[in-house]
From TrEMBL:
Pfam families: UPF0223 (PF05256). It comes from Lentibacillus salinarum. HAMAP family: UPF0223. This is UPF0223 protein ACFQ4A_00760. NCBIfam families: PRK04387.1. InterPro entries: BH2638-like_sf (IPR023324), UPF0223 (IPR007920). Belongs to the UPF0223 family.
């Protein structure tokens, strides 16, 4: 991993942890597999930090540009999946 997560200096320590945890779940979905419930829980916490849809899209776009991993398809697959774990391979 040679990139930085998109973060805001105004966020509290816990908010940064929540955002990093969500993006970490996205990474795991592409690299190995991740528990579906973990993705959904991390996304709910992410939305508490970044409630606006346009702001969310901005952070998703910045993360994808830096990492190559698209966040929304992971969230969509977690929402629609019946399986306990998901992978984007």
């Amino acid at each position: 991993m040679n990139y930085h997560y998109p973060l805001d200096d105004a966020w509290s320590k816990q908010e940064v942890i929540n955002v990093v945890n969500f993006f970490s779940c996205v990474e795991r979905a592409y690299e190995t597999k991740v528990n579906r419930d973990d993705v959904l829980a991390a996304y709910r916490k992410f939305k508490q930090v970044v409630p606006g849809k346009s702001e969310e899209k901005t952070y998703f776009r910045e993360f994808e540009r830096a990492s190559g991993y698209a966040s929304f398809p992971v969230v969509r697959k977690a929402r629609n999946s019946e399986s306990t774990s998901i992978t984007m391979k």
